[in-house]
Amino acid sequence: xxxxxxxxxxxxxxxxxxxxxxxxxxxxxxxxxxxxxxxxxxxxxxxxxxxxxxxxxxxxxxxxxxxxxxxxxxxxxxxxxxxxxxxxxxxxxxxxxxxxxxxxxxxxxxxxxxxxxxxxxxxxxxxxxxxxxxxxxxxxxxxxxxxxxxxxxxxxxxxxxxxxxxxxxxxxxxxxxxxxxxxxxxxxxxxxxxxxxxxxxxxxxxxxxxxxxxxxxxxxxxxxxxxxxxxxxxxxxxxxxxxxxxxxxxxxxxxxxxxxxxxxxxxxxxxxxxxxxxxxxxxxxxxxxxxxxxxxxxxxxx
Length: 302
Prior knowledge:
Layout: H1 2-17, H2 25-40, H3 48-70, H4 75-87, H5 90-105, H6 109-117, H7 129-176, H8 188-212, H9 215-225, H10 234-245, E1 248-255, E2 258-266, H11 273-301
Antiparallel strand pairs: 1-2
Helix pairs in contact: 1-4, 1-11, 2-3, 2-7, 3-7, 4-7, 5-6, 5-7, 5-11, 6-7, 7-8, 7-10, 7-11, 8-9, 8-10, 8-11, 9-10
Membrane topology: Multi-pass membrane protein
Pfam families: CobD_Cbib
Family: Belongs to the CobD/CbiB family.
C-alpha cells in the first residue's frame, strides 16, 4: 500500500503544482547527458558500444542512488513521492495542449501553429487548422503514454529506482535516439532500451484508452492499424486512442524538411480543436482509472 499511496500523493502534487518553473532535475540531467555524449560521441563517430557505455554512465548511478535513498527510514517515502512527481508530466501536458485548442477555437491559426510547435517535432509553420488539431491530438495521446502512464507503471513495479530508470532512459531516447548520421549508431542503445521499457505500459495505455471511449472501434484500430506504424509503442497507443475518440489521425507530416506519408490511424472525421481536449480527458480518465484500480487492489490485499 505504501507505493500506492505514494503514487496518489505524487499525482496530487503534480495536479497542484505541475513542473517546477525554475530548476528541474531533468534539466540538470540533460546537461550532464550532453557532456557525456560530447565525450563519448565526439564528431558523431561513436559506435553502439560507446552508446551502451554512455547510457550506463548516465542512468545507472542515479538509479542506484534513488534506490539507496528510498531505503532510508521515514525519509525514503518522501524520496519515492518526489521521484514520481519529478517524472510525471500530467499537468504539463494540459498546459501545452489546452492553449492549442483555445487558439483554434478563437480562429488564431498562427498562435495555434506556434503553440503546437512546442509539442511536436514536425514542421508546423504551414499547417492548416486540421493539421494543427491532428498534431495536438496525436501528441496528447502519445505523450500521455510516455510522460504519465509509463512513469506510473515503472514506479509501481520498482518504486523510486524504477521510475528514475525509466524517466532518464526516456530522456536519453529523446536526446540521442535519432536516425541521423550523428546518432544512428551511438543512439541505438538509448532507442532500443526506451522501446523495451515502454512495451508493456504502451499496451496497457492502449487498453485504457479503448475502455474509456469507443471500445470496439478502438480495439479494431489497434489490431489492424498499429502494426503499420513505425514505432512499436506509439502505434498501439495512437491507433487505440484515435479509435476511442472516433477520429482520423496520421497522414502526411513534414519532419526536418522531409515529408513522411504516415498510415491513417482511427476512423471518423479529421481531428478538430475539441478533439485535443477529448484526448486530454482520455489521459485524465485513464490516470483516475489506474489509481482507482490500484486503491481497490491495495484494500483487497490489506
